[in-house]
Every structure is written in structure tokens, then in C-alpha cells.
Specification:
heterodimer; A: about 85% helix; B: mainly alpha; Rna Polymerase Sigma Factor, Chain: A; Arc Repressor Mutant, subunit A; 2 domains
């Protein structure tokens, strides 16, 4: 046997050793379109994290915009009062 | 003997085509080691072997009912494996354009203990010097595919396959012995 042939055999053996137990089941599950429990758990975790972040941003945003609205209203009231005073003076 | 094994394979493929999950599992078990070796020869990365093998077999399971000649299952499967591996390498190349890595990250060595023989290491290095299509060609020959089957896989003539194979073998031999010395 040539040294290359020996190396090819080792290559095949080494590659085969990388296939973990339960491989056919995983393939059949994937082919049926089912996701592994790990994938479902990861997906649920991602979705929960995204929802939490979105909620936090919305809460913060509503607080900030509420403050801004109050400031703007106060500013406008002041301008209206000044305009009224000016009108009465004329 | 040859004929009976072909018949058995043909029967198994036909049963899988009819939706027999047991037959499908038998096909996966029968070919998983060979497909893994084939993917390793083309990509040179043992850490992606299982993912690639899984992609090949999922494609096989989903497309098996379109195989018209069950006796030609083996060459069909290795054509599927070859295309999957070449696509994988193309995608990797494309990804590198958009997310360039430093040279030291391009060729990350195999994890410690992953390659424990000098012959295998020399073969891996020699294969890495070849073009992916030439690696696929040599891997198909190692899988016992005939020149005619390889010509059909590569959509070329038998004479062209012989010429390319001769060149690829010569290059592999040169790099293999250079790495060994």
C-alpha cells in the first residue's frame, strides 16, 4: 500500500470520528422540518430578550416624550400669556 | 455479488422513496462515514464535517423521490455531496469579502489532537494546495467512482477527466512528498 493510500484511509477515519452519536436522527428530524429542542430554546430566549429590550425602549421613550410635551405646553402657555398681556397693553 | 449488492441498494432506495423512514435511516448509516470523509477531503476542516454531512443527507432525504434510477444512488449522492461542499467553500469565500479577517485568522489550525498522524497532516496540507474542484475529483476517485461517473458529475468528457485527474494526482504527489520531507 502506498503511503498516500494509508493517509487517505486515515483521513476517512478521522472524518468519520467527527460524526457524533444520533446523527441519523438529527438528519431525519431536520429533513422533516422539525427543529431541535436546543434550537427552539435558543429561539425562545432570543425572542424574549428582544421583547424585553423593545419594552424598555418604549417605556423610556414614553417617559421622555411625556416630559417634553409638558415642557412644550408650559412654554406655549407662557407665550400665550405674554401675547395676551401685549394685546391688552395696546 | 456486485449485482446483489446493487439490487439491495436499489431496493433500499426504492423503499426510502416510498417514505419508509427505516430505509432512509439505513441509507444514512451506510453512507455517513464515506460522506464525512469526502467532505473533509474537499474542505480540509474537520470541524465543519458533521454540519456538511448533515446538509448533504437532508438534501438527499428531500430530493430522493426525484431520483429516477435508484441503482445510481451512490453517484447521485456523491454529486450532491460535491456540490454542497463546493457551495460551502464559495459562501465562505464570499463571506470573507464582506468580513475580512487578518491573515492569522484565515487559516486557523485544526484543534490540538485533531490531526494525530504525520501522513494525514501531509495529505491535508497537500490537498489544501489544490483547487477545490481538483480535491473533489481526487476524493471521488478515492470513493471508487468511475471516470464515466465523474465525467457526468463534472459535466465534461471522460478524456477531460483523465487529463485533469493526471494533473491533480501529479500536483498532490509533489506537495505530499514536499510536506513529508
Amino acid at each position: 500500500m502506498k503511503p498516500e493510500d494509508q493517509a487517505w484511509m486515515q483521513l476517512r477515519e478521522h472524518a468519520a470520528s467527527r460524526i457524533s452519536p444520533g446523527f441519523p436522527d438529527r438528519v431525519l428530524r431536520e429533513a422533516r422540518g422539525e427543529r431541535s429542542p436546543l434550537f427552539v430554546a435558543q429561539f425562545a430566549m432570543c425572542a424574549a430578550t428582544a421583547a424585553l429590550c423593545l419594552g424598555a425602549v418604549a417605556l423610556y421613550q414614553s417617559g421622555v416624550s411625556g416630559d417634553d410635551d409638558a415642557k412644550n405646553l408650559a412654554g406655549w402657555s407662557e407665550i400665550t400669556a405674554q401675547a395676551n398681556d401685549l394685546e391688552q397693553g395696546l | 455479488m456486485e449485482e446483489s449488492s446493487t439490487t439491495t441498494l436499489g431496493d433500499r432506495v426504492r423503499r426510502a422513496q416510498r417514505g419508509d423512514e427505516g430505509a432512509m435511516r439505513e441509507l444514512i448509516v451506510a453512507y455517513q462515514r464515506r460522506v464525512a470523509g469526502f467532505a473533509y477531503a474537499i474542505t480540509g476542516r474537520s470541524d465543519s464535517v458533521e454540519d456538511l454531512a448533515q446538509m448533504v443527507f437532508v438534501k438527499m432525504a428531500r430530493a430522493l423521490d426525484r431520483l429516477k434510477a435508484p441503482e445510481q444512488f451512490e453517484s447521485w449522492l456523491f454529486r450532491l455531496a460535491r456540490n454542497t461542499c463546493i457551495d460551502h467553500l464559495r459562501r465562505q469565500k464570499l463571506r470573507r469579502i464582506f468580513t475580512p479577517f487578518a491573515p492569522e485568522h484565515e487559516n486557523v489550525p485544526e484543534p490540538a489532537g485533531a490531526v494525530d498522524s504525520e501522513e494525514l497532516d501531509a495529505l491535508r496540507h497537500a490537498l489544501a494546495q489544490l483547487r477545490p474542484k481538483d480535491r473533489a475529483l481526487l476524493a471521488l476517485v478515492q470513493e471508487g467512482r468511475s471516470h464515466a461517473e465523474i465525467a457526468a458529475t463534472f459535466r465534461t468528457s471522460v478524456a477531460a477527466v483523465k487529463a485533469r485527474l493526471h494533473r491533480a494526482r501529479e500536483q498532490l504527489r509533489q506537495h505530499y512528498h514536499r510536506d513529508e520531507t
